[in-house]
Amino acid sequence: MTVDEILLVDDSIEDSEILARLLDDAGFSQNMVVVSDPLQALAMLDGKTGTQLSRRTLILLDIGLPHMSGLDLAGQIRMRPEWSHAPIVMLTESANPEHVIAAKNHNVAGYVLKQKLDESLQNQSATLAQLLGSPG
């Protein structure tokens, strides 16, 4: 499945800007919607905001978010039938094995450490190209 857009849920403006730049530098030009609050992300996914997301949206989640963790947000997303199969990638500073296991239990497509984001994007470029469509 290729995706039309990317929903990034991260409360760090700096990390969001770095990720957007890395994806752009890698040649992926999909529309990126950035929100810092998981409750806003859920409202958006539920169609309760002015932003309409395609059912072909890649969802990138930070783990350390206000109001609920990214892992809890992934669980909430999986409970929504229309989003239950959306590709979710966790972006985090936590290498905690419990977080990795919890992410796998939510059937996430990937778990990327922010400290190694650039390296991970390079190593997973084939997977990204498959999800996002060929760079160009």
Output the keywords.
single chain; 136 residues; alpha/beta; 5-stranded parallel sheet; globular
Overview of this structure, please?
This protein has 136 residues and is of the alpha/beta class. Helix content is 40%, strand content 18%. The chain has a five-stranded parallel sheet. The chain is globular and about 35 Å long. 32% of the residues are buried. The model has no long low-confidence stretch (mean pLDDT 83).
Q: Classify the secondary structure makeup into a structural class.
A: alpha/beta
Radius of gyration: 14 Å
Low-confidence stretches: none
What is the rounded distance between the termini? Answer: 17 Å
- The largest sheet has its strands arranged as 2-1-3-4-5
Oligomer: single chain
Q: Helix and strand succession?
A: EHEHEHEHEHH
* Overall helicity: 25-40%
Query: Main beta sheet, described?
Result: 5 strands, parallel
How large is the share of residues in beta strands? 15-25%
What does the average pLDDT come to? 83
> How many H/I helical runs?
6
Q: Tell me the overall shape.
A: globular
The tally of beta strands, per DSSP, is 5
